[in-house]
Amino acid sequence: MAIHSESQSVTTTGVVTAIQSGSVEVNLNGTALSCVLRGKLKREWQMVTSLVVVGDRVTVSRTPDGLGVIEEIHPRRNKLSRPGFKNYEHVIAANIDQVIIVASVHQPPFKRNLVDRFLLLARTLGLEPILVVNKVDLEDERVIRAWLAPLESAGLPIVLASAATGQGLEDLGRLLTGKVSAFAGQSGVGKSSLVNALFPGLQIKTQETSWANKGRHTTTGSRLYPLPDGGYLADTPGIKDLALWEADEEDLSEVFPEIEALAGGCKFRDCTHVHEPKCAVRAAVERHELDPARYRSYLRLQQGR
Ligand code: GDP
Ligand code: ZN
Fold first, then answer.
1. Looking at the CA of 198, which ligand is closest?
2. Which of 95, 101, 156, 161 could covalently link to 118 via disulfide, CB atoms 3.0 to 4.6 Å apart?
3. Three-state SS string across 66-116, please?
């Protein structure tokens, strides 16, 4: 009785913006369409919870009565995931381009090792990091720039912003356009204030997105919010578990290029820069050529703490 005309139907590519029970919301050229999965995929979906996730690119066909049918899920460029039930991988979102790490100058105070930690996570996940230092209205800009100097010379894109005065918002808006971005950062740094100041009409129901907050658990689903000039904001539930993931050497040296450069001068190739003799990194700290706070932050992350 079912009449299929798959061969003739017109297909469009869209982006999954939300997963509802039994249906998938897809953004097709700016319009949200509730879709079902093609039978074959649907059976698979019952076995694999992460078959289709927020951020997935999908091919959608339309039935004569306007319903959307997901025909195909495209390969993922990257994914945010965490161990789920019985340690099966639970994918939270796919194809995120960049992570906006938000820190504040005061309230809560700026903590560079927390920023380093977020940076390392971003690298581990294959996401481009951008640092937004919010609440710059609360401190002399020269003081802030001094804190950021080592990060700046490591090549990290940094935006000095204030949701209160509007400073930096234009720059931040430009960086978000056309990209899929996730915001991360400690609670209270101003993530929702920044998003609300940038996109007053967006109506994001903010969830706990902090990677640093321990002991909190949210079960709400992820969602992508289309931005007015293209791109999306990803609102993902507490992905704190990702913090447990181990970073590898390579990620660490990307976050600390100045330490990587010095390490070439250590006596031992596998020097950990903790106790070995003739360590060029420790020597640089002693000569005040390497910021001791950077060095401590490096050691902490190297040891997974
Ligand atoms: P979130 O938890 O990261 O989403 O932080 P919120 O957006 O809820 O902001 C936390 C607090 O910081 C609120 O009381 C805001 O009014 C305040 N806040 C946010 N941005 C700024 C800013 O640029 N300057 C100042 N002085 N306060 C801010
Ligand atoms: Zn060394």
1. 1
2. 101
3. CCEEEEEECCCCCEEEEECHHHCEEEEEECCCEEEEEEECCCCCCCHHHHH
* Longest alpha-carbon distance in the chain: 81
Same domain, 226 and 268: no
CATH number at residue 129: 3.40.50.300
- Ligand 2 mean position, distance from CA 302 (Å): 13
The answer, yes or no, to whether any atom of ligand 1 lies below 6 A from the CB of 186, is no
**Together in a domain, 100 and 202:** yes
Distance 151 CA to ligand 2 centre (A): 21
Parent domain of 87: 79-235
235-256 per-position pLDDT tens digit: 876 443 344 344 556 677 778 8
96 and 138 belong to one structural domain: yes
Around Cβ 169, how many Cβ atoms within 10 Å? 17
**pTM, two decimal places:** 0.75
Count the domains in the chain.
3
